[in-house]
Amino acid sequence: MLFGTIRLWPFxxxxxxVPGNPLAVCIEQQCAAGVRALIDGEQIxxxxxxxxxxxxxxxxxxxxxVSNVIRESELTGNFELHPRxxxxxxxxxxxxxxxxxxxxxxxxxxxxLVPARAEMTxxxxxxxxxxxxxxxxxxxxxxxxxxxxxxxxINIGALGNLVPQLHVHHIARFTDDPAWPGPVWGHSAAxxxxxxxxxxxxxxVRDWFADELTxxxxxxxxxxxxxxx
Length: 229
Prior knowledge:
Distance between the termini: 75 Å
Largest sheet: 5 strands, antiparallel
Structural class: alpha+beta
CATH architecture of the largest domain: 2-Layer Sandwich
CATH class of the largest domain: Alpha Beta
Low-confidence stretches: 1-18, 67-72, 223-229
């Protein structure tokens, strides 16, 4: 910027020759004031440009949010959780793609991801973006089972023979669990959680996902059934 290099010539030289000359002092003050006004004006212009750019960016961000909501609504359609999953599981909350469920079997930390897409039965039926998001959610959930639940092995499977709705099981396995080393499916009847234990499990996994998880049910909506206390 050139303002800092402006010299008040010839008034500086004239002022030194005639100290205190009111005309020279007045002219110098007026020139200095003019320079300051130009600098202030330029700063105001920059500030207004920054404000305009900020408003433009905020508008773009909100437009993208609206577009995402519209897309989500279109993709979700008439999605409803299968009655069998609703009966066997407790709702943990909602990830960007999937409904996260906890199977009501206290012998295993056993979670289910259900992509909130209507009439889906296979992973390949999801669009590419949803496939990638499902994989990210699956990996994040598996990490929880490994790091927090200290699983010896993690079983991940999308069977769907009895419940055709697309859903992916994530089960923490231990060398001393009832079904080890065989599969848990069809091994024996589930043992429902006691209320205190299930609340600890739900709090743990919700804390793990933190802000990724939305739509968390109220405490009273996660009561265990089948006689558990």
